[in-house]
Design brief:
The chain is mainly alpha-helical and 168 residues long. The chain is built from six helices and two strands.
Length: 168
């Protein structure tokens, strides 16, 4: 398994949502299909791809009327994917925006964009602080509470080309 295989596996919004569902609680193919709104066969297909990429795994089995029922869960608490190549969108951010757009419009949200001018040291420090904050709250997560998603992207945008006639 390579990180590129994982990137391909999570690039699909349905698989991204399956992984989000499995963060805190194992589920069977049938339960996944019901919660994500898929046909059972589609659910099975997507889970197999995630399993092959090493992102989900079988955590327990049980016999039900002669059939072995498998419970799947995330293989790790978090994953790190390679940066997308030139011209490729950031898959996780694209999926997070789709989830934000699908969330209840009347629900509480905290969405903010800030344009900053930072030294390399400040940029690195801010990235480390954001990751530490996410890790701190991940440790506080309680599976009995409602889901909340935290997404951040700290990056240096491509330099803007000065358009002829722009004020200096």
């Amino acid at each position: 398994m390579t990180n590129d295989e994982q990137l391909r596996a999570v690039s699909n919004l349905t698989r991204h949502r399956i992984m989000a569902m499995l963060r805190f609680e194992p589920a069977t193919i049938t339960q996944i299909a019901q919660r994500v709104g898929l046909a059972k066969g589609s659910s099975s297909y997507h889970v197999r791809l995630l399993e092959r990429a090493g992102l989900v795994k079988v955590v327990r089995t049980r016999k039900v009327r002669g059939v072995t029922e498998r419970y799947y869960a995330m293989a790790a608490r978090s994953i790190e994917l390679p940066d997308p190549g030139p011209g490729q969108p950031d898959v996780l951010l694209r999926n997070a925006v789709a989830d934000l757009e699908a969330s209840p419009a009347d629900g509480e949200r905290h969405v903010r964009m800030a344009h900053l001018r930072l030294t390399e040291e400040q940029f690195t420090e801010l990235g480390a602080r954001l990751e530490a904050l996410a890790d701190e709250y991940r440790a506080l997560s309680d599976p009995s509470l409602p889901d909340a998603s935290l997404v951040f992207a700290l990056f240096q945008p491509a330099p803007r080309r000065q358009v002829e006639g722009d004020a200096k």
